[in-house]
Amino acid sequence: MKRKASAVWSGDLKSGKGSISTESGTLKETQYSFSTRFENGVGTNPEELIAAAHAGCFSMAFSAELGKAGFTPTAIHTTATITMEKTDAGFTVTESHLEMSAKIPGIDAEKFTSIANGAKAGCPISRLLNAKISLAARLEA
Hints:
The structure is a single chain. The chain is α+β, with helices and mostly antiparallel strands. The protein has two domains: about 5-40, no CATH class; about 45-140, K homology (KH) domain (GMP Synthetase, Chain A, domain 3, 2-Layer Sandwich). The protein has four helices and six strands. A hairpin with a 6-residue loop joins strand 1 and strand 2. Helix 2 (about 45-70) packs across helix 3.
């Protein structure tokens, strides 16, 4: 399986601008720039897209692992927060912190935590990132 996205950039780093598109068309010439990446400009940025990918990947991986254990979630809500820091090597994504809450009928807290941690480690985006991956998981009643 292969997935494709593209980016176009015009100009220098600070005053230039670009657009990002995905093969599926979900993102079509979506604007990004220095201000959307390092300030608070309108548009997206690579780190935000990585956070979205990680949140989505983890939610799906968690659902899959729950299914293998005989549980069907009513809802899974995941937020990923990407941390980018300037290191000796340059700007680097150093961490992705996942915050997840879920409603899962019939599961106990211990099983919930075990499956969530397995999904965190097994999610393909977690394995892609060369960063610390942390998880705060909350089981809703």
